[in-house]
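Chain entry —
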Amino acid sequence: MAALIRQLALVSESKQIPAADVQKVSAAIQKQASRDLAPIWDISATVDSFDKLEDVPVGYWPIIVMDDIGVDGAAGVHEDKNGQPFALVTAAGTLDEWSLTASHEALEMLVDPSGNRVVTGDSPKTDQGRVSFLVEVCDPSEAADFAYSSNGVLVADFYTPHYFDPVKAAGVRYSFTGAITEPRQVLKGGYLSWQDPVSAHWWQEIWFDSAASFRELGPVDSNAQGNIRAVIDKMTATHTQKAISGGRHSARAAGVSAMANHTSTASRAAGWREQIAQILGRSEHSPAPAPSSKFRAAPSVY
């Protein structure tokens, strides 16, 4: 049986983001979801852009880009009153900065819509035993340094299911870009969260400063936010924003930028227009003949 298709909607309520940029980012995340995420996580998804929330069809999970999302930590994936996921993303003047955040939220929403999915494994903290890791596919390598390009737009790296393997093995891919090289590794700017069943407290391995370290979050009550991930994201929001702020300038696998890519797409568009003009039998620069006020010719049928 084919996997159910998860449908995302990218909507901007920001005054600083042009509609054309929303469409570019939507197409980039769609390509990332189909080409990169789907074969690894066995997930089928569509990502479409819409002008406003009122245009989003019922059944779509919206990713909403806004200039002001209120209190710190509101960014991330939440649940509506029906338990369906939606994400809030802070707008930025640079396309690559907000595209990276939108990609991050889209991938985590697709892999774990509920925000409560856990995987059991050995704790990175040697005085703990088996723990429950929260599945957040982008967090351990969330910094802009490890992002890459889709259609020239910066998108987030993500780990594979092998990330939770018990031991490292040769030839195994632990994240899409290969930046993560072993199970449960946390890269600079990232973090990993888990619950210790003995104390029922949540813990993190974080690399927000000069070196990785552990921190205890204590018990987490998800009732207010609807899911564990929303609570965890709120606790790390400031560090996450700092990690992604480098954008394309610090991304090692960024590739060609959307601006550089525009030269190629503009040239291709010019070629299409020229060919269309030839098909229609007129110069590309000549105005189209005005239709007769008395009658119109019937269209040709082939």
